[in-house]
């Protein structure tokens, strides 16, 4: 009930006023909670991060940590190739990535105890093992929460969305709902690609949008339930700024790219998503997550990884598509002078079993897997850690997801010891158990 004895709340008012008809669904109207932070600064090497999330768990043996001298049931059907860095080899399905290895670092000794999608996803994206006591926020949401940007473009964008870990992952965790990622929703690879909230529905004119925004501000002035420290609804204001912003529309406009550029990235979803991610960091977005599904290869590994689900003659499978997207992204960032300030991370929730199963696939394997990183001030052309001869366990220099999260935070200028506060005032460190990887933050 409001102080005036009516049950008509802010959301009801907006619903009656027609805000959803502008293309701003109610899911885009979260309210701010009383979460704060005690920010500890760290020297920043990177200004932004592009996280390429391979949802389902990519095989390290078919990508960044091949085992050519192991038995066939372990090494799998693909060969290995050299890279631009002598002594570093990757799967033969990654020729373009191999040519840019001087910019990249492979961590081959990642290790986790969590082999279930939702749990593994939570650990990799937050740096915390999941617990029923508290939902921890994704790194992108932490970056958004601690940032001070007030622009027309959201500070945490997911392309096309962040529906990962079986769809159960809550990206903002215990932080305010307004730092949840802005989900583009549409797939940039589709011809009818459209960004949610970028344009109003047909027939809705700018004057009506402005009028609804004025209604909201007027409501805030008379609503005694609104905290004085948060006089506006931040999510609505963000959507309103995006809808009325020329720079926002420009950043999301893939049609501004030449057909040659779009072709280099590849026609598959991951390629066009990475191209959009490049445009977003160029526009100043601090954190972009590219979510690429399909990596849970329990069966038919050869077709799914090399050729794609259709068995097409052209190499359009998961790994060749990643190869085109990643190499083009790294090359473009380098050529535009942005690689040094843009951290790129490629990872999934775990690796795959050393031995092929009877269905010609590999099952979940968190004991050891690989992550690839580039840019953001880290040195390229190196390998950190190693797995054993079978790709079964770390051989040396084990790195945990908590270590990786602490590293990413420090590279982006956030001390891992920074204290965040939950809605009920509970202090929580950004990274509790992680130690930044010295070879990368050095």
UniProtKB/TrEMBL annotation:
- SUPFAM superfamilies to which the protein is assigned, alphabetical: Alkaline phosphatase-like
Q: Where is the signal peptide?
A: none
Q: Which InterPro entries does the UniProt record give?
A: Alkaline_phosphatase_core_sf, DUF1501, TAT_signal
| Stated name of the protein | DUF1501 domain-containing protein
Q: Which PANTHER family match?
A: BLL7424 PROTEIN (PTHR43737), DUF1501 DOMAIN-CONTAINING PROTEIN (PTHR43737:SF1)
Task: Please tell me the species this chain comes from.
Answer: Rubripirellula reticaptiva
């Amino acid at each position: 009930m409001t102080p005036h004895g009516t049950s008509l709340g802010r959301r009801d008012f907006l619903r009656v006023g027609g805000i959803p008809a502008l293309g701003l669904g109610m899911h885009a109207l979260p309210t701010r909670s009383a979460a704060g932070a005690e920010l500890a600064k760290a020297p920043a090497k990177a200004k932004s991060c592009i996280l390429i999330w391979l949802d389902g768990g990519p095989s390290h043996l078919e990508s960044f940590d091949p085992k050519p001298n192991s038995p066939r049931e372990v090494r799998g059907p693909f060969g290995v190739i050299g890279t631009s860095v002598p002594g570093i080899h990757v799967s033969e399905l990654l020729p373009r990535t191999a040519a840019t290895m001087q910019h990249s670092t492979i961590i081959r000794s990642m290790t986790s105890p969590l082999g279930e999608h939702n749990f593994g996803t939570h650990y990799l994206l937050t740096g915390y093992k999941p617990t029923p006591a508290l939902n921890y926020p994704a790194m992108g949401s932490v970056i958004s929460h601690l940032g001070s940007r007030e622009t027309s473009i959201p500070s945490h964008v997911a392309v096309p969305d962040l529906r990962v870990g079986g769809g159960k992952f809550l990206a903002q965790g215990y932080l305010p709902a307004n730092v949840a990622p802005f989900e583009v929703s549409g797939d940039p690879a589709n011809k009818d690609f459209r960004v949610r909230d970028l344009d109003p529905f047909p027939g809705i004119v700018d004057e009506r949008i402005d009028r609804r925004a004025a209604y909201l501000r007027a409501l805030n002035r008379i609503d005694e339930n609104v905290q004085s420290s948060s006089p506006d609804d931040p999510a609505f204001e963000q959507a309103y700024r995006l809808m009325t912003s020329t720079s926002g529309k420009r950043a999301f406009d893939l049609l501004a790219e030449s057909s040659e550029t779009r072709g280099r990235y590849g026609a598959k979803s991951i390629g066009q998503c990475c191209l959009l991610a490049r445009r977003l960091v160029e526009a100043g977005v601090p954190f972009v997550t590219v979510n690429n599904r399909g990596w849970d290869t329990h069966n038919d590994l050869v077709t799914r990884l090399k050729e794609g689900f259709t068995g097409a003659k052209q190499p359009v499978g998961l790994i060749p598509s990643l190869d085109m997207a990643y190499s083009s992204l790294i090359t473009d960032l380098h050529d535009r002078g942005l690689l040094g300030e843009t951290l790129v991370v490629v990872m999934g929730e775990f690796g795959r079993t050393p031995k092929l199963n009877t269905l010609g696939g590999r099952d979940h394997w968190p004991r050891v897997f690989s992550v690839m990183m580039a840019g953001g001030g880290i040195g390229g052309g190196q390998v950190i850690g190693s797995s054993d001869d079978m790709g079964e366990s770390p051989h040396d220099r084990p790195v945990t997801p908590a270590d990786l999260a602490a590293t990413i935070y420090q590279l982006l200028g956030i001390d891992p010891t920074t204290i965040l506060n939950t809605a009920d005032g509970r202090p929580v460190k950004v990274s509790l158990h992680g130690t930044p990887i010295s070879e990368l933050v050095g």
